[in-house]
Structure formats: structure tokens, C-alpha cells
């Protein structure tokens, strides 16, 4: 499973601090969310997708008043990393999933940014969805 957590720049408030997308994937694996660890003022410094034929892991490095790294999955595959500029932020995520050995896996992930940069990894499949961050 993959869950996108969107924190809008300048829009972090007590009323609506985060917005969550739907989950992607299937009934196998473990759904995750780092929502409880997100703090006001944090921004994404880098995203790393580890992938070969399919996604093996993902890491988000956040900066701000409480720096942290959120990692999920394994350490296999090739690391594809995008370091974001100071005012750059995530605007979209595309996830593709499929079955391998009877279990649903995330095969491909791609993130787009406000500066037009992207980072991706894995193999695209027919089962996919794209989430765009609200403006």
C-alpha cells in the first residue's frame, strides 16, 4: 500500500493541518501513514524511491523545526533521489500496482514538484491512479 500525505505550504492550521489521499495498492502488505509524526513548519527536503522491477522502498527526508526521515519498505533496488529546493514542494503523486506471486505490490511511484521536477522508480502497470495536491 502507499499513502500520500500532503502538507500545503503556508496552509498548516489547527483546523486542517494535513490532507490525506486515498490509499493505493491492494489487500496485501501493510498500510502506513506518518501523519502522527508531522509537525508544523516541516518541509520535504528530499524523496528517495528504491526500485527495480517494482518499488522496494520510499524515504522522505523532512526539514524544519523537527527534522526527520520517514522510511518504509526495503533497501533493495536502485535509489532514485530528488532533493527539493527551498520553496519547492510536492504537487502530484502517481502510483501503479499489480500482482506478483499472488500478492498486490506497488510497481511504480512518481512524484512531481512545483518546479516541474520529478522522481520515479519501478515499472508502470495498467492499474494506476494519480493524486494532485490542492492549490
Automatic annotation (TrEMBL):
| Boundaries of every Jacalin-type lectin domain copy | 18-135
Domain of life where this protein originates: Eukaryota
Signal peptide (UniProt feature, chain positions): none
Q: State a single Pfam family of this protein.
A: Jacalin
This chain belongs to which protein, by name?
A: Jacalin-type lectin domain-containing protein
Q: What is the species listed in this Swiss-Prot or TrEMBL entry?
A: Phytophthora nicotianae (Potato buckeye rot agent)
Q: What is the lineage of its organism?
A: Eukaryota, Sar, Stramenopiles, Oomycota, Peronosporomycetes
Amino acid at each position: 500500500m502507499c499513502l500520500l500525505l500532503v502538507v500545503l505550504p503556508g496552509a498548516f492550521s489547527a483546523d486542517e493541518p494535513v490532507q490525506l489521499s486515498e490509499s493505493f495498492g491492494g489487500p496485501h502488505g501493510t498500510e502506513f501513514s506518518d501523519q502522527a509524526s508531522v509537525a508544523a513548519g516541516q518541509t520535504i527536503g528530499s524523496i528517495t524511491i528504491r526500485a527495480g522491477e517494482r518499488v522496494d522502498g520510499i524515504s522522505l527526508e523532512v526539514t524544519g523545526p523537527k527534522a526527520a526521515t520517514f522510511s518504509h519498505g526495503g533497501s533493495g533496488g536502485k535509489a532514485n533521489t530528488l532533493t527539493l529546493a527551498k520553496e519547492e514542494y510536492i504537487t502530484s503523486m502517481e502510483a501503479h500496482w499489480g500482482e506478483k506471486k499472488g500478492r498486490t505490490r506497488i510497481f511504480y511511484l512518481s512524484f512531481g514538484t512545483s518546479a516541474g521536477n520529478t522522481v520515479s522508480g519501478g515499472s508502470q502497470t495498467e492499474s494506476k491512479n494519480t493524486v494532485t495536491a490542492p492549490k
